[in-house]
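Hi P.,

Sorry for the delay on this. The queue was packed all week, but I finally got your sequence through. Input first:
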Amino acid sequence: MGIQDVQDHVLVQCDFEIFGQVQGCGFTKHCRDNSLALGLKGWVKNSKQGTIMGKMQGAKADVQKMVDWLSKTGSPGCKIDKAEFTNWGTLSRFAFTDFAIRF
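Then the structure:
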């Protein structure tokens, strides 16, 4: 294992908020499904402001894959205008047991 391999496996977390036409197109379901496939933990929900909000935790490389998906791809039929990622940090262990849709 090289240094990059070790860095990719460090546990990190961040909060996210996705802006645009992201509600009513299955965004939260696709976000949950993609996060679970990557082994991420956390949650996602529709906000009252019309955005998608959440928190994700996982290996740095997997979180980065989800950052890319949230920023550029999203669910079919959505239109992402902007993605914000805040409160970055490292973890010694997960604070969540799975990745859930919150209401």
